[in-house]
Specification:
BirA Bifunctional Protein, domain 2, Rossmann fold, 8-stranded mixed beta sheet, 5-stranded mixed beta sheet, elongated, disordered N terminus, binds histidyl-adenosine monophosphate
Length: about 475
């Protein structure tokens, strides 16, 4: 610093130090904090182990069953969903995040991905590829529904779609993938299944259903009266208590299936029997999207009885959060979207909901999902140890070792506490002396025995020790 003349220094008045109030006593307004947008939720690190496991389970199943990963944009033309899911469905009529883009086009955040897959299949000429084309995806969907436990406005799905295969074996395979996802996670589930036949069969059934419900109009809730004209199949979805006796006596879709649809459904059920997958025939299961035909199914946690004990309806009795996943055939979708006639089917698993069910199941059964597992813990003492330690850590990472560490802690005691909590078998300690000697101390956490090892040999020594346990 250059020397200043004494006189000058003297003449510089020290600015009066402002008396600062302690932060807590400050009367100044705090900066605005932001709440989550309604229906959105953060996925925090404490839940990472669940999300990671779900992703890897889906990824492993996709690899085994040979589904190729596809990513479609979150933003699509609104018309894509209006045409495929259909007007009159809740998703299209009430739940779309649709808006006008800057160029005036109508776009929306995807409420589901099957329509996007159909678009991508057509756009990229996938019908030229060997059939079936099997695709899987993982990502957020958006529905402006009324939020409640397990129902969000942004939620994740893992989806699997098979295009170009009409054989009932494909239906069984898709259900098997869904079932295995939960089996691999350790969540007991049941499948609710139904057939809604071909379009023509369904139209005849709808007529019958409407005639029946018209004759019972006086007993129906207001919503069902509206559904009668708007979307009669949704009558079978009604949860209102007063409508249940009417629903229980309603004509069943299965009685309106033609010989082809009937044979297809029988074969699917035979496959499920062979696979030992538990299922309930659910006559009221129609699914909320228009593109389905023949097989439709949903996955429910098997935590509650699958059948209504009152025997009035065969509707699954489930927790508040509803189906964990669902899907079915959509043999007309690709053609309806402007492509060549291509049979298709698929399913999507709701990941947020599945994790909730998984946690509930684990809590009830005192099960724990393992988080990150470390091979060793690294404890450093002092500035130099951090500097050398970071380099050593990085070399151990390259060597494939999983090392726990916390450079925010300086005392050996607190670092050993963390190591204890992580239940690592060995701790590597690096103090000032070890930095100078280019050594480390390896401590066996079970016996308490410590060994001084050359830094260059630490990796090999640790690996040998880990192999022995
Ligand atoms: P979906 O039944 O509408 O089917 O949704 C599948 C799963 O996504 C549901 O079973 C549920 O677990 C989850 N899900 C739906 N809405 C919400 C929400 N608001 N909050 C949390 N989770 C939710 C489809 O999306 C079809 N695209 C499935 C499919 C694929 N069909 C054929 N291929």
């Amino acid at each position: 610093m250059p020397k200043l003349k004494k006189k000058f220094v003297k003449s510089v008045k020290k600015p009066e130090a402002k008396k600062s109030k302690p932060a807590s006593a400050s009367s100044e307004p705090k900066a605005k904090t932001y709440a989550l947008v309604r229906g959105m939720h953060d996925i925090l690190p404490r839940d990472e182990k669940y999300w990671k496991k779900c992703f890897h389970t889906a990824e492993d199943l996709a690899a085994f069953f040979q589904f190729g990963r596809i990513e479609t944009p979150l933003l699509e033309e609104t018309g894509l969903f209006v045409r495929s899911l259909g007007r009159g469905t809740d998703v299209v009529d009430k739940e779309m995040y649709a808006f006008e883009d800057k160029d005036g086009s109508r776009v929306c955040l995807r409420p589901e991905a099957t329509a996007s897959i159909a678009r991508a299949f057509i756009n990229s000429g996938m019908w030229n590829a060997p059939q079936p084309v099997k695709l899987w995806y993982w990502g957020p969907m958006f529905r402006h529904d009324r939020p409640q436990a397990g129902r969000y406005r942004q939620f994740f799905q893992a989806g699997f779609e098979v295009l170009g295969m009409a054989d009932p074996a494909a239906d069984a395979e898709i259900i098997l993938v869904a079932f295995n996802f939960y089996k691999d996670l350790g969540i007991p589930v049941e499948i609710s299944i139904n057939s809604i036949g071909s379009l023509a069969e369904r139209d005849r059934y709808k007529e019958e259903l409407v005639n029946y419900y018209r004759s019972k109009r006086g007993y129906l809730c207001a919503e069902c009266k509206a559904r009668l004209n708007r979307n009669p199949l949704r009558l079978l979805d009604c949860k209102e208590k007063d409508c249940q006796p009417v629903k229980a006596e309603a004509p069943k879709m299965i009685d309106w299936l033609g010989p082809e649809s009937s044979a297809h459904f029988t074969k699917v059920l035979e496959y499920l029997d062979e696979l030992g997958i538990p299922y309930n025939l659910c006559h009221t299961l129609v699914r909320g999207l228009d593109y389905y035909n023949n097989t439709v199914f949903e996955v429910y946690p098997a935590l509650t009885p699958a059948l209504n004990t009152e025997g009035k309806t065969d509707e699954p009795v489930v927790g508040q959060q509803g189906a964990l996943g669902g899907g079915g055939r959509y043999d007309g979708l690709i053609e309806q979207m402007g492509g060549r006639a291509t049979p298709g089917l698929g399913m999507a698993l709701g990941i947020d909901r599945s994790i909730l069910a998984w946690k509930q199941h684990n809590e009830a059964n005192k099960l724990v999902v393992a988080g990150n597992k470390f091979d060793i813990y690294f404890a450093q003492l002092g500035e130099d140890s951090k500097r050398v330690g970071l380099r050593l850590l990085d070399s151990w990472r390259l060597a494939g070792l999983k090392v726990g560490f916390n450079f925010g802690k300086n005392s050996l005691k607190s670092q050993m506490e963390i190591a204890n909590n992580l239940k690592v078998p060995f701790v590597i300690i690096l103090g000032q002396k070890e930095v100078q000697d280019q050594t480390v101390i390896i401590r066996d956490m079970e016996s308490g025995v410590q060994e001084v090892v050359d830094q260059k040999k630490a990796e090999a020594t640790i690996k040998k020790k880990l192999e022995k346990i």
